[in-house]
Amino acid sequence: MMKLILSILLATSIGISCSKKTEPIIPNPAINTAKPPIADDEKTDRKAEEAQLFCKKNNFNKDFCILIDMSLHSGLNRFFVYDFNQKKSHSEVFGWSWVWK
């Protein structure tokens, strides 16, 4: 008899919990939906100029340098290959697949 009562209570509680009406999700305006920060091109160019002077002074590679902007979050694109000849960074080169080509 006790098992029957418990089974009925369990079935009733499951039925009630499943029939709950759900409220529509309303977007919270307090949540920050701004775009994440990106690398500053002027800062990258200044650092590349410093790197180029360093490379010339120490007789290093004068074609390109690798810059990593540690001020950006690690989940963002902060790895750059800067081409001294074209005076621009190739930020699309992300990851290490380009090394093996």
Core attributes:
101 residues; alpha+beta; three-stranded antiparallel sheet; 3 strands; disordered C terminus
Please sum up the structure shown.
This protein has helices at residues 2-18, 41-57; strands at 64-68, 79-83, 88-90. The chain is an alpha+beta fold and 101 residues long.
Describe the protein's architecture and organization:
This protein has 101 residues and is α+β, with helices and mostly antiparallel strands. It has a domain at 41-100. It is 34% helix and 13% strand. It has helices at residues 2-18, 41-57, and strands at 64-68, 79-83, 88-90. A 3-stranded antiparallel beta sheet has the order 1-2-3, covered by helices on one side. A hairpin with a 4-residue loop joins strand 2 and strand 3 (88-90). The longest helix is centred in the N-terminal third of the chain and has 17 residues, at 2-18. The chain is rod-shaped. Residues 96-101 have low confidence and may be disordered.
